[in-house]
Amino acid sequence: MLRPSSLSCGYGFFWGTPLNNRLGRTMSAFACLAITGSAFTGVVAPSHADAVEGQALNGLALLSELVLRAEGGPAYSQDYFEHWLDDDRDCLDTRQEVLIEESVTPVVMADACTIASGEWYSPWDGRTSITPVEIDVVHFVPLQEAWFSGASSWDSSTRQRFANDLDLDASLTGMMGSLNASRGASDPYEWLPSLADTRCQYVSEWVRVKYRWGLTVDSREQAQLRYFLSGACESYVMAVPPLAVTASEAPQETLWPLFKNSYDGTIYEFVTYKDGSSGPVPLNFAKWRDVYGFQRPARTPTDYVGYAWSSSVYAVTFWPGGENAWQWDMLNYNQFRAAGSPGKRNIGWIPGSSFYRWETSSEIFVQAPDATKHALNYAEWQRSGFQPFQPIYDQGFVKLSWSSDIGRMTSLSAGQGSGLSYNEWRGEGQPTPRSQARVNGDVFYQLYGNPTIYYSGPFLNRAVNYNQWAAAGFPKPEIRGAPPVYPFTDVKATATSVVLYGDSQLDGDSWSEQGARAMGFTDQAAHLSFGGIGYSTPTSSAGGTGWTAVQQGLVRFPGGTPGLVLVSMGGNDASAGRSDAQVIADSSALWAKLKLMYPQSKIVINGVMSRNDASHVQRRHIDGVLAANAAKQGVTFISVAGLASTANAQYLDNVHLSQAGHDAVAPLYTAKLRATLGR
């Protein structure tokens, strides 16, 4: 087939105002790409020299006989193919002849000219039907595909023979209507049967029909057929069908204008497609040699451009069709040298560039196709045509105001990021970081027992000096590596809770409990009373002394923050004759531990309940020792020395109050506790 190729040219053919601004000048060198004039005489149809009718060949060998050509031709209409004829005048047209031939059981005729039923199997989807209206008799190579593969150059008689070809089984076949609708006019690149084990037969029959009728294949179709016929279907053998057209009737090769660029030597055919669109197609050497006879190509209309802030050079070829048809290539060193080391023109925009802005600054950045990043000034952004930019939320670059370190934040809100070296910062286009003293999720900390203060953040973790800590606002450092304060129980004490820890002075409804209750501390579940215990005196029920039992975590103190902690012991230290020094050391250790355990709670130390007689002289002495130590340690202390005599309290024995004795002492103690708590 001979095909003229003409393209009109005029102002704006390549050049629109937006791109004129971007590229920086009018297109004087390439005002119009003139690909005009008549077509070139084609090459004759394939000779089929290697294929003999009836010979058994594999599909790849038969495929090599087909002419490779881009699809094209005048607009298609089914009316160009007269079909379903009754050539033998037996009142059965071509469609019914195929149905009769392909039914796996003898058909039942409604009358001499109408098929009522049969059984038809569609191998392409594995379905069977007994109703002829469900079966479409289809052209294996669809009429539209044939039209654009060369049938448009046939006369009406040849098209009629193709549309009613009963001499080759593959030409016409039955197919379920729904499957035919799915296939449409597709070639094997666009559609293949869903049943994988039928595809070898499908592509082989496709090649046989195209060979028989001298139809061409396009590049995508050829590649798909070659993929199967040289792979999974390599062993699939077929008989060469008889030719249905002469060499003069077969489609002829269309010659297109040729162009060659100077930077990589690619030669292009400028092809016009069946839908009227056009574009460059790379030409392989064999076709250039065999079809074009080494025809000398014209030079492509190419210019060399780039960004002022990047060393990369881009070739832009102004193919017809407007800005979207232009071809852009970033040149490597060898291509640049092959093009003659051209000087580049600086422009404001190159396709493939992305424009964006980080949340941490107002700067607009561009990333070029070569991955180079650059912060635009206003003039550069203007030259780009004010390309829209993508805001990058919750990300950016941060600099600590008290340090020179810069970090890239991948999530500002979550405090996630990493450090940035100088070269990495330059690689990002030297973004201006946002200066701030702190970052979400960062922390200042100290190691337990070490005065050095450290900073830990998403992009920095190191020791800081005093000035840096001050510049950050003197944040209170966490203490890391400290041993657990205490193995508390799961019970959580509250503001109305009192923790009572002591000896048998807490037995019954003791004066300590009554005083705490009068002050509003009604939750007294933490009643930790151990008979015989003292600061320095052990008891088996506690597992140690008043101090060592706590030191070793043996006493079940509640968690949380109780409103009041009351300690009542020392009488057993008096009875056991513990030295003042020992009592002072152990009481100091216990009180310090309680402060760590309950830093927000009020801690009150009760003295030793006693009478004023000679038998309680040591008890009163220990009360005084504790009072002096409490003053030294800054601990709240209530002395109860001689309080039993003041209340005329009753005793069960020499040291234990009766319940009546507790009740008598309680009002006096409550008054002392109220005064101590300031209530």
From TrEMBL:
Ranges where the GmrSD restriction endonucleases C-terminal domain occurs: 137-225
Lineage: Bacteria, Bacillati, Actinomycetota, Actinomycetes, Micrococcales
Residues spanning the membrane: none
Matching Gene3D superfamilies: SGNH hydrolase (3.40.50.1110)
Source species, domain of life: Bacteria
Occurrences of domain SGNH hydrolase-type esterase (ranges): 501-664
Coiled coil: none
Pfam families in alphabetical order: GmrSD_C, Lipase_GDSL_2
Protein name (record): Uncharacterized protein
